[in-house]
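Slide 14.
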Amino acid sequence: MTRNAQAAFAALTLSLAPFLSVAEASDSQIVELGPFERCYVDDYDGQASCALLSVPLDWDNVQGEKLELYVAKIPSVSLEPAEPLILLAGGPGQAATVMGRLVQDVLPKTLRTRDIILMDQRGTGRSHPLDCELGESYALDTEELVKRVEACAANLDVDPNFFDTHSAIRDIDALRQALGFEQVNLLGGSYGTRVALLYSSQFPEQARSLILDSVTPPSLSIYSTMAQTSDRAFQILLNDCEQSPECARAFPGLGADFLALLERVDEQGIEVTLDHPTTGEEVEFVITRDFLTGVLHGGLYKAARRIQLPIAMGKATQGDFAPLFAMSTWFDGNGSGGIHFGLMLSVFCAEDVPRFTLEDAVVAGQGTISGHGEYETWRALCAVWPVHPETKPCDDPQQAPPTLLLSGHLDPVTPPSLAEHVAEKIPNSRLIIVENRGHIVSPIGCVPKLMTEFIETLDLSVLDASCLGDVKSVPFIISSSGGPA
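Slide 15: predicted structure.
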């Protein structure tokens, strides 16, 4: 059963002239940017305008079929805006145009000097989304999930081989040229950091700066580290609970009890009937190790979820699975505001699964609570999803523009060690680690101030990260009434 794969893992002024052609296309007009018109960006209260960027579906056949990509521009207050900031969403499978809240709450000062651009990556949002309606993950074992993915593949109206990261970075550079800028700034989160790093590798002169939040190195398959990074975050959770007198008193022996539960469901899954937390309907399903570790993994992403894990785990060890079931439904979703699962499949099945073998997964998962089940599930899904293994290089850049890397110490999927892996290869870079927080730290504490200062000055040495000492741990919830530890 997948680790909530549908979701866990898991996103403009009117002055531009219509139909600007990409300079490299010469007279052939390979790319066209339509007129910007006023539009609404989700969770953003200010002015915005949107346009369609027409690009080749297949960048190796530029005269062939076209694909329209949806572009939103949030305009600077400056009459002569500097190089824009392009936001790159995560997932893979999140649409960039759902990231209005990030612009409004985290990046408002950036708009003093430059536009902010949100382009839905091909396969997401309004850029020919690749959606698979799979249902809720708790109800799906691997066999059923494979059947639904196979049915989704049969209904595709486009070849998913053209929905890969390398095509996405060609789209980004086409947009840069159509907007008329020599360089752009890139802010990527999670999978978006892979996109930013590969763009920097392919177009080293066109990237002015990179901000990488929760870093995913292009050179590493996500499955080469996931079991170990998730296990690390789990161990930190147990240690934090033990160090909290209230949590330790409320849930003594939590780690040992939960491990015993995992061994029990390995022998035989536990059949349960529970009320769905949203619909109120009774649902029947089987509690398995993959379900338990999947909910745990998803809960470790954010502090607001993490603080609920001890009580949910404790109740599960006593036979009450309702709290963990409720948490599992948070991670399901497809489409707007969530993950376009067909795009996730197209990327992972071309770029991650083929670079890792089952034997590798067994070794990597040895001694961890999740083992290699996640890889086995994705291997089965990719066997029925019609994409070929990526042949283009997925290497970490050997040179890059000034690069600010951000990482949450508690992150279960992209911990600081992955950011360090990239930072070692980029001379002009700096890693800032945010304690007491998990995946995606751009909105935390004074991080917005540091990002804005970096974009304007490109001077990593002047960033004073001591302000992040104000980011405190969040107390665990130890009672059903919501009381903190």
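Speaker note: Residues 1-28, 333-337 have pLDDT under 50 and may be disordered.
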